[in-house]
Specification:
Probable lipase. This protein is an alpha/beta fold. About 40% of the residues lie in helices and about 10% in strands. Helix 5 packs parallel to helix 7. The mean pLDDT is about 95.
């Protein structure tokens, strides 16, 4: 059978997708041992995992670009879940990092705005997962800042205020939330979860994967295995197996 004929006879496979929307912690999540890669591995042949991470971004900028990433005509229907993972940059200290800093009340309003937008394109709240920023290990991050000629430009206590605001938005909007800031600090020395005091280490990636899977599993558990297992393909007439005839 010619490829053109096969394409005409078979219906297009529309792959479901999980969208990961966030800052650098999301952008880097497909690196070796990253949490995005781990999710993609778990969902292979069932669902695409799409990285929409933007290093350095805050919610002020994220709110502007979200409609360019997902709309009713582009991706909303196939999106089975979306994570919104911002706050590490919003919570930067205003005096020392004014470009990335977003005031706490605006941060919460921006998160709500993004949830409301997603709902307006028919992505219901049960498919939206907010993730708080992780805790900041100040001494390690200060070394990173000093190496660039800067002062420590974040504080863990401040990050915690943004994490609390994120959790409250999730409660108000009816979405799921992974409170990384609180969960990671249940371990007395949480520095093992961070590579530089801010971004996730391999152990931190594993931790987030486990926490996030608890929220995602109910959304993806019913997804079928796309296209038949190779042993189930009819060798005498593969078209019938592969084209769904």
């Amino acid at each position: 059978m010619a490829l053109a004929e096969a394409g005409a006879r078979g219906r297009l496979l529309r792959w479901p997708r999980v969208v990961l929307f966030g800052d650098s912690i999301t952008e880097h999540c497909f690196q070796d041992q990253g949490w995005g890669a781990a999710l993609a591995n778990r969902l292979v042949r069932k669902c695409d995992v799409v990285n929409r991470g933007f290093s350095g971004y805050n919610t002020r900028w994220a709110k502007v670009i979200l409609p360019r990433l997902i709309s009713k005509s582009a991706g909303a229907e196939s999106t089975v879940a979306i994570t919104i993972f911002f706050g590490a940059n919003d919570s930067a200290l205003k005096d020392l990092n004014p470009k990335q800093h977003v005031p706490l009340e605006e941060y919460a309003a921006n998160l709500k705005s993004m949830v409301q937008y997603l709902k307006s394109v028919d992505i219901t709240e049960d498919r939206i997962i907010l993730i708080t920023p992780p805790p900041l290990q100040e001494s390690a991050w200060e070394k990173e800042c000093l190496a660039k000629g800067d002062k420590l430009n974040r504080r863990n206590s401040t990050t915690g205020e943004y994490a609390k605001a994120c959790v409250q938005v999730a409660r108000d909007c009816g979405t799921a939330v992974v409170d990384l800031w609180t969960l990671m600090q249940k371990k007395q020395d949480f520095s093992c979860y961070l590579s530089d005091g801010l971004h996730l280490s391999p152990e931190g990636n594993n931790f987030l994967t486990a926490q996030l899977w608890g929220c995602l599993e109910k959304q993806v558990s019913g997804l079928p295995f796309l296209l038949p297992y190779w042993r189930d393909v009819d060798t005498a007439s593969p078209e019938g197996s592969l084209l769904g005839e």
